Amino acid sequence: MVSVINTVDTSHEDMIHDAQMDYYGTRLATCSSDRTVKIFDVRNGGQILVADLRGHEGPVWQVAWAHPMFGNILASCSYDRKVIIWKEDNGSWDKMYEYTGHESSVNSVCWGPYEFGLILACGSSDGAISLLTFTGDQQWDVKKISNAHTIGCNAVSWAPAVVPGSLIDQPSGQKPNYVKRFVSGGCDNLVKLWKEEDGQWKEDQKLEAHSDWVRDVGWAPSIGLPTSTIASCSQDGRVFIWTCDDPAGNTWTPELLHKFNDVVWHVSWSITGNILAVSGGDNKVTLWKESMDGRWACISDVSKGQGAVSTITDTQQTEQ
Amino acid sequence: MAARWSSENVVVEFRDAQATAMSVDCLGSHAVLSGRRFLYMVNLEAPSEPPRKIGRQSKWDVGTVQWNPHRAESHVFAASSNQRVDLYSWRDGCGEVHTSLQGHTRVISDLDWSWFEPEFLVTSSVDTYIYIWDTRDTRKPTVALSAVAGASQVKWNRKNQYLLASSHDGDVRIWDKRKPNTAAEYVAAHLSKIHGLDWHPDNEFILATSSQDNSVRFWDYRQPRKYLNILSCQVPVWKARYTPFSNGLVTVMVPQLRRENSLLLWSTLDLNSPVHAFVGHDDVVLEFQWRPQKEGSKDYQLVTWSRDQTLRIWRVDPQLQKLCVSDVEELMDGMSLTVEMEKSLSSQEPDSQHSLGPAAENLQDPDSGGRQDSAGGSGLTQTLQQEFSLVNLQIRNVNVEMDVVNRSCVVSAHFGSHQVHLVVKFPAQYPNNAAPSFQFVSPTTIPSAMKTKIQKILTDTSLQKVKRNQNCLEPCVRQLVSCLESDMTQEDPFVISNPVTPALQPFPRVTNTYGSYQDANIPFPRTSGARFCGTGCLVYFTRPITMHRSVPPTEPTPRSLSALSAYHSGVLTPMKMRSESQSTLRLYSGSPTRSDKDTVSISSFYYKERKLPISASRRWSVQTLHDWPKSRRFKTKREGTDYGNRPIKLAGKVIIQDISCLLPVHKSLGESYILNMNDIQETCQKNAAAALTVGRRDVAKVWALASAATSQDLSPDSDPDTETPWARHPFGRQLLETLLDHYSHMSDVQTLAMLCSVFRAQAPPPDCYSLYGHHASRSAMLPPHHSRYPSYTSSSVTSGSCSSTSDSITTTTWNAGRDSEHANPWGESSPDDYRYGNQGYTDPREREREQHDMNKRLLDPANMLQFDDFKKCYGEILYRWGLREKRADVLKFATCPPEPHKGIEFGVYCCHCRSQARGTQCAVCKRLTFQCAICHVAVRGSSNFCLSCGHGGHTSHMMDWFRRQDECPAGCGCHCLLQSTF
Q1: For A13, A67, B558, B717, which has the most beta carbons within 10 A of its beta carbon?
Q2: ipTM over 0.95
Q3: Whole-structure pTM value
Q4: Which B-chain residues 833-852 have CB contacts (< 8 A) with chain A?
């Protein structure tokens, strides 16, 4: 059964905007309108404040953990137009890098797959997306996609490192030729796919279905199947699941997961890519699971704030 | 206050009408009053006649009623009732509904007939849509504008047939109906809800907004960031509408007390005081409209309807109209008004005459046509006397004593333990580019550094203003206050000395707080969310239970951060009024005016139950009796005053949930699964048992099938002619593919990766054997079962030894990754270096055999890359679980080797000349580079050495030595066993 394994009282002085655990699920990072980022050690149901990171001058919207092969690294983005990359060294957390290249609130940060090295995508209300790549020696290479979304960019999410469409063509035994791709959503109601070609970022696809601002996008993790999947959610209350079976990655088909009554703020994929968590302005979280025949069904409706949790048990275990 | 008092021309009482809305037709002959049971048609020519009635059957009040403004359609009027608009036609003393417009899903807040096309009607609703209807086709709206936020007002532009404006809380949006997707412009107009919206009658770009935040603001929507002018009132403004004659504006305030039913006429050129007050109504003025001017008449008539159930008609004669126009302008332009000016008109005009100067902010746009010539100056400067009398200095802890005669004033302020006394002296020319002087006098207690700082700020502020001939006293005092406040932190936040009439905010909002226009494109922040983390956790955060949304749950959350300004006070219920606007009893259910000490935060959007000053909560409890009689919750909670000092919890808890049971992968299986290449049967059986223990009966059966398929009896024969391999059997490759397909649909990457690994181990590709030198050639007889070849796994990644297994190369490089304790598992190399398709065949038999090799395999060789991806993905999950050895076990079966190891490599330096060496002999000094410390022979092959002292030698010799000894065999005294971590 689904069970609550920990309840963390963050002691933030204002509302929380994001909470995320690291790769292993041992540490929790939270960020808040009180301009701080906090890191807790949450192993064994405990709660030990590891760090209280102060550096932002405005509410902090989102945090993102980098892959642990690079060390303990956390990125945070804020209303103050800054992106700060924090690193733990000998148990103390310090700023590793501060990026100030955006002209408006930075709304989303996302680390790329570890195969690409330490690379961070940042989406801002100035409409641009920045890509920060660590080149060693405290140097960061910055690439900026200007006017990626008119009015503003609200979310970015990386594609898993898979070789596009070449499951058959790829000569076996060679180092795979990964293509860097990510998806973004913005105030132009569009979901856009981006691809790096010869070191330049290019708009690859433009997905239209939403009738209002796209608030979050999530590229599903790959388990090695040729289908790519993206979830997008919007102010219009709709959540779409976009799938692409086409090896070239050109044909994306939307499927409406559900129309909610209020804004949907966040979509998140489970590690196997078959469960989607959807949350929004109604203070509720719903979990959606893809059935064997490819349909999406709500498997739980967790009404929040009450601590009450109701879920449907895993029917799969018994059905076979 | 007003220059003249007038009495109305006509008063008619309609005692039983209970009308909520009123409209005057474009001919000026009829007014319709909309009650719940009847619509009353009042003949304005003879208003005291009994009105004619049109019955209606609805439990809803009429929200808005409006006559069609076109003469050809002057018999038509529209009345909104909840979600529907009824179109009535009034002919020959009879009226009836001829059609209805249905489309909105929530209550309609406003409607407006087009000024250009008689058939077009726009409606706005709480359902967030604005519909434009063509009344000839009533089935559905012709244009739908999606505003996301509910609208309270919608108005067509009077000069441009495509433009319309709508208000959404504190924002105004300008729409071009030809581009319905997005608003053409956003104006973050007010801090609180906009009650009224009106386009300038002659200027396409200018509009006036009236708001709960106690102000009317004038906008040129092309410059949405700054209002053109502001009319500050002490109370919320319900409606502000331009007059049909030049430069006039009529406002209705939201009364704080029932007796004050101020209906005021203003000149837009001088917003300091109204020109006229229409006094007479005993209760709230619900609607006012201008009766179209009759031919030849110079009078205008204002028709008003009040909750006192009287309809009044007020005459506005040319003298009154002229009050709206300043004298100077009148002299300069050729005004259409012919009546000569009367001396008694204004008591204020003479004063303002000598202070006329160029205006800083033009109300009207210079490019526009119409009457712009008469609108030269709106921000007229005042004499010092006027400034003193009008200055709004209701600031807590501040007292200003003004002395007009000596042209000076003393500002005294108390902040915490500090006192400030400041003498301001105004030069004679002030404010015409002559700034006042500021001087601190005793008993000022602030440090001198701060005095200097404040003095500079004040001088800058005053200079800025007087350069534009503007008064500067109020801005300066406010600057002083904000300076002091930012420095004095010890003030008590719960004492608000003047909660009822707080100071107005005369400045544009500070740009670095929320809710400014710049935030219009910043998304409204998430206050709850859920994210899958690690492998089996769902992390979610929510708003605390005490934070309710200040809007009804049916209202959507705003999309942009700028909307926060509407929720500024945190106790406002901004959309309440709109959603219940059909009920007049609630029309003016204003919330307590806010304190400007409030800071805007995201939490402002959410209703905080506890943070109410005592005075405010008392006011609320009174109001709730009127406004929310059913809502006991509001009342009881707000009356509790003991909450006042308790800190409010704004951050909810973060909850971590274990959802691993929902996932198709299981950590316990990851731990208990084995991959023993030496005994596939045992592997399958053990794994089946493991699957059973976690309840995966399906997987247990699959392992049973795997066991059967890998049974030794079914081992393929090496000779292609003997029999068809089992893989070609329907229960062979085909079955396996079906299984893989099934688990792909389930996203069960664990089962997928394990099956792929097992079946790959079961039929290892032939090349690896030749690689390991066990077979002289590929044509040699292939073993029917790999378990005869234990060496396949002999170089297991987890061996943990510090020895090199290869004899063919020297010991110059060691792979640190071999050690499971210290290794970076990302650098594991696969022993399997098999490649397809690059063999050249010379012999057809060889080709056949090759084909046979492919056919023998249960896993389709064509999909090997995909199988690798399963393993890689499962490996990643195992890594997250901390099962690194299991991960290495799985990754061994990947065809595609991971990236070459980039970890520590040991190099050899010649022990004699210290040059880097390769091979056994140093290229520089020709001596042996690495001698065994025991036998003194050059070491090839397997070796061990101490990382500390660098001595070592043949592995066998070293093992023998250290079995008995602790110290280095070279005699250097190093305790190699202790030093070396290996």
Answers
A1: B558
A2: no
A3: 0.52
A4: 833-837
